[in-house]
Amino acid sequence: MIQEHDINYGTIFWYEICIKHTKFLPILDILSSRLFVEGATVMNYHVVQAFHAVGNGTLFTGQITWGNSYSGPISRFNWIYDCGSTSERVIDTQVKGLPLWFGAGGQDIDMLVLSHFDDDHVNGLETLLDNHVVKKLVLPYIEWAQSIRDISVMGQKGTSPSVALFQLNPARWLEIKNKENRIGEIVLVQGNGGPDDSGSEPGSNFPKDIDWIDDTFPENKMEDNEDDAKYDYEAADSVFMGLGYPMHHSAIKVTRINQEQSISNACKTFEFMFYNAEKSLQGLGLVEEIGGKICAKKSRVPLGKVKTEIENLIMGLGLDGDLRSLPANWRTQLKKCYEKHFGHTAKARNNISLCMYAGPVDTLPFMLCHRHSVMTKGLAILMTGDINLNSWVIDDMKQHFGSERWDNLGVIQVPHHGSRHCWHAGNTRHFMPAIFVQCATGTKHHPHDDVTRELTSHHACILNADRSTPVCIKYDYTYFPHKR
Ligand SMILES: [Zn+2]
């Protein structure tokens, strides 16, 4: 498989990550011989990952393959995190190359995660769906009023009308693009309101770690092949707008998970876990309860009525249509309506970007080192999108993922294309030793000198996926089912 990828993907440089714990070597020998005696399966897995060359933006792909050559066909799990770039030409070219990257069996994307709805993270989606079917689309759970605010108040720079419609109603967007049935299910990841960053800077006493997934609580785990999760009308209604074509009229199933639940690949040896720091409307003080009803803070109109009014406005503007008739001031009109109900909320900042941990589960921390290898603390990757990775968020994330996962991190995506507003002094030490990947074109602010300097001061390994060079990382791991 390694060779197949090397050939398919041309002459790129692979970084091989590995960890060395010599103290486990004798145990490995004993354990493996014992397992063979008992007839248990020791399975080998191969992981390839790439930050594609899209510059400012992110297109990250991963593939796990497993199976022994004598026991039948190789199994695969394909996933993508974000799919966009500030250059539409660049993202289109890269996305068109993905069938080659994934190889045979790569038309099915088992999971696509979109961190948030800025064009540079989403605008390759339409091209992606030309060649691929997405089984599970994972999105941050964002209440519809937050989305309206993002699009109308904050979105001038980042969100085009097409991406705005996709955010508000993916089913309608797919219908317009003639791509119904290209997405099977939408999984909304609900957070816990993010860190409490109202107080003072957090100190060194980190909160108690949560337990590594406990097998006695099977509901903590959502298997890839689990089909019995019910359509979540309430979540769909809180997140999406009807716009004459509600989500439940489409074939797309909408479900919700809490960020405590992880998603694992079919064979349970690799897990994905998310982190959503979004604050709710209530948490931001944008709504209040009046006479038993949740109402918009400023207008004091019940939220349901506000939603209908905004939906009618959007349909009147034609944002739900083919977008050609959209008036130039559509955003201003939307903003006016939003602020009439919720007020000027420049202060009510939110930190929305769905972060993702992805790494092997329950493996012995043992790897052989090869040429071109980089030593890291672990094999897992942390994808951060455009989150503002301040110390409150890092502490909250650390507590959320737990110490075992945190110690397994080997690759960190530097958030927001190396913006200095999202990476802070002291960040690097939380992750060392690791590979730090910046997804940036290489302009004045992306990556910013301050960020690069902070990383280099810790002698970190910094790689950059700009518009000409991808960053490709691979490793193997072995699963020992009876480790515990
Ligand atoms: Zn971005």
Characterization of this structure:
It is globular and about 60 Å long. It is built from 15 helices and 20 strands. Helices cover 27% and strands 25% of the residues. It is of the alpha/beta class and 484 residues long. A hairpin with a 2-residue loop joins strand 12 and strand 13. The strands form 3 sheets. It has a 10-stranded mixed sheet. Zinc ion is lined by residues 118, 120-121, 386, 416-417. The site of zinc ion (ZN) has 6 residues, from helix 5.
Give the SSE map.
Blueprint: H1 2-8, E1 14-18, H2 25-38, E2 43-51, E3 57-66, E4 75-85, H3 88-96, H4 98-102, E5 108-113, H5 119-122, H6 125-131, E6 133-140, H7 144-154, H8 161-168, H9 170-176, E7 183-190, E8 221-223, H10 233-239, E9 253-258, E10 262-264, E11 270-275, E12 287-290, E13 293-296, H11 303-317, H12 330-342, E14 355-360, E15 373-375, E16 380-383, H13 391-401, H14 403-406, E17 409-414, E18 435-438, H15 449-456, E19 461-464, E20 471-479
Bound molecules: zinc ion (ZN).
What name is given to the CATH topology of the largest domain?
Answer: Metallo-beta-lactamase, Chain A
**Order of strands in the sheet with the most strands?**
9-7-6-5-4-3-2-20-1-15
Shape: globular
What is the CATH class of the largest domain? Alpha Beta
Biggest sheet overview: 10 strands, mixed
Give a count of the beta strands, DSSP E runs of length 2 or more.
20
Q: SS-based structural class?
A: alpha/beta
* Total domains: 2
The tally of helices reads 15
The averaged pLDDT comes out at 82
> What is the second-level CATH architecture of the largest domain?
4-Layer Sandwich
What are the bound molecules? zinc ion
Radius of gyration: 23 Å
The residue fraction in helices comes out at 25-40%
Strand content: 15-25%
Low-confidence stretches: 1-10, 20-40, 199-226, 365-371
The span between the termini is 30 Å
